[in-house]
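Listing S7. Sequence submitted for prediction.
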Amino acid sequence: MTIQNDAEYQAGMSRLEALTSDNPTHLAEMEALGNALEAYEDSHGHAPVRPDSLVFRIERYMFEHRLKKQELAQLLGITNSRLSEVLNGKRAVNMDLGRRLYTKLHIPAEFVLMHA
């Protein structure tokens, strides 16, 4: 199976989303379609879109360092509830927390200012 253009790519993506992995008869089609879609993406410069927000960077740091929220809050010197509010978008990052994100997590200061 080969995908030649964007219309075929979109149709293939729709078909792949419609298939369910619960049904064993779909597995061969899913694998062939997935390989064809991936080959088309590779040949046409498609790349996954990386979310890039301050929350994403904080959560990525937590994941990479295998930290729980409570451990990260302790590292940053803030309460667990304040960290949760920031991660849930209920509280903005102030200068003090921005400075801590820069010094402790090594998130570039310019990025913190742009996304705070």
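Caption to Listing S7: primary sequence and predicted structure tokens for the chain studied. The chain is about 65% helix and 0% strand. The chain has a mean pLDDT of 88.
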